[in-house]
Amino acid sequence: MDKEETVTLSDGAGGEKMQSFICRLVLSNLDSSAGEIPLGYLDDGAVIDDIVFTTDSYTVKPLIFPGGNIGSLSVCGTVNDLSVMGAEPIALSCSLIISDGFSLKDLDVILKSMREASDRAGVPVVTGDTKVVEKTALEGMFINTSGIGRRSDLLDSNIEAICARREFAQRWPNDSAVAPGDKIIISGTLGDHGIALLSFREGYGFETQVKTDAQPLNHMIREALRVGGISAMKDPTRGGLSNLLNEWSQKSKVGIILEEDDVPLKEPVVSACEMLGIDPLEIGNEGKAAFAVVPDLAEDVLAALRKTDEGRDAAIIGEASRDYRGVVMRTSVGGLRIVESPVGDPVPRIC
Amino acid sequence: MDKEETVTLSDGAGGEKMQSFICRLVLSNLDSSAGEIPLGYLDDGAVIDDIVFTTDSYTVKPLIFPGGNIGSLSVCGTVNDLSVMGAEPIALSCSLIISDGFSLKDLDVILKSMREASDRAGVPVVTGDTKVVEKTALEGMFINTSGIGRRSDLLDSNIEAICARREFAQRWPNDSAVAPGDKIIISGTLGDHGIALLSFREGYGFETQVKTDAQPLNHMIREALRVGGISAMKDPTRGGLSNLLNEWSQKSKVGIILEEDDVPLKEPVVSACEMLGIDPLEIGNEGKAAFAVVPDLAEDVLAALRKTDEGRDAAIIGEASRDYRGVVMRTSVGGLRIVESPVGDPVPRIC
Predict the structure, then answer these.
(1) Is B112 touching A (CB cutoff 8 A)?
(2) Domain of A309?
(3) What is the pTM of this model?
(4) Inside any domain, residue B315
(5) What pLDDT score was predicted for residue B222?
(6) Residue B264's Cα: distance from chain center in Å?
(7) For B300-306, what is the mean pLDDT?
(8) CATH no. for residue A52?
(9) What residues of chain A lie within 8 A of the CB of B8, using their CB?
(10) Residue A265 forms contact with B (CB below 8 Å)
(11) Please, what is the Cα angle at A42 between A40 and A45, to 5 degrees?
(12) Is the ipTM beyond the 0.90 threshold?
């Protein structure tokens, strides 16, 4: 390894560059293939001894933003990582790293938001750790939340619903289980979180009414699983929906065709993305989930999602298909464009 | 709350000031009393649904120091937190927050040390997360490791050994279970980790051969539990043995008398502490555990510890007693001195 080589921002940005960085440095050193869903799967969490286990450090900037803050974000993100694995979240840990001189008032606001999000999800914070470091070592604060969950009691009936329609279903919904014909559902509008953050950062010079979408999705996902037939679930965080669908396409070895007109987007998000030259499909979200569902249950899952607060804007936006390679989108004007996995994230430090 | 108030370094230093900070801000907002050992117990981890769950963020400075680095430390610390709870560790998570421009060579060294410590403990890293932030936001890197474990199969026989000798034993060894007569055992020399770090920091102007004691203790603790009769176990990290024994004394409502001559200390640590005016009992350790053991099994537990690599310098250093209030030490010259919980940590950022 070259002595001069260093880590760069794009190594943590959630796109292709990050994948290669993680494989080259982290997996080569740490992966031991332990567990039913081990580190090497690069899934949202691990499964070991039937416990689902996940971790996330939040370095979002700014710490407080329209509609939320690092506290609510850190609870929602980890609850959602457990939920999209097919787990019922049991408990969270909360580890604070705070800069000397940090405002106690802001800290109180942040911790109160953590509690509110934790109460809304019904998932308690049960263990924690607090470190304070010098101003020169850290700007503001970081929060790590890890989470544990148990395999949802609804996964068995979910599998049965899949097996009634095709030969084989996997024990957990996962990135490699998407099959041709599966409908792709997104639970709501895309890009809100990234645009809310950008609008609040210095130097961007635009204003918007868009708020973060950060919200716990465990209750909504339970309603979807109750219908059944879900072969894969995932939350489009860093790298956005583009990254998510490319992961499904690659790991499941299936093409995916999207309908641009069906992708739910808020008008101010469309305007901001046009102004900034950003693709809304590449922006990270913190309160949305994508589902791949067996065709004849897709409308039922959609209806169940729409009945929830978190999923009221849900839409079927495409399907898995043998007729395409990779991820392709039929645009509003009728053409086809390839949807690539972003190299890095267009909006850094969104989580 | 006063608008001008801010977090200070001593709020995270492991002493009395940190206890009051945690109670005032963190517990008041986050504690929900969920679990068998909930957040409010401020123990080394939580127990919920018979899963032991713990978290720690490592902000040690410097990142690489004599005998170890932030990588090995982050594995040992979390394995030990699970082990002193009475758990068999199952798995760890690893969340990296890295500064843009960080040396890939150093990162590789750190991750290799994580793997070595994980292999030595026999506890795999199963899930992870990587964030990269700007140089202005973070100096170097932080690592969070969280861990899950299961109640050790040896705890039932450990309880039986206690119950054979007194009326009542608690389901888990814990801070409030120390009884009068219990012998206090420390598994090895104190202060090594803090002095190794200090010697390596700029501006301290002394050299020493002392290395960190960071090591996973799960195998050693298993040998001690096999003997049984252990009412409490804890690792003397931030705040050192002084903090640990004061917690036992307060939570168990019992006095503790220490024999200064029996406390194992390396000669270079004694010299460095004298030169710097630091009490070795207040320095954090990363590879030691203290045990409170029913009197007539203490020698057997000591012998079992001494047979292990990690516990070869173990010693009985005192006992719990109704004859004293708080923690008291009989000094080498025959006097008694009160051992108080440190207000802050004499060596900051040791973990």
Answers:
(1) yes
(2) 9-338
(3) 0.95
(4) yes
(5) 98
(6) 17
(7) 98
(8) 3.90.650.10
(9) 100-101, 132
(10) no
(11) 105
(12) yes
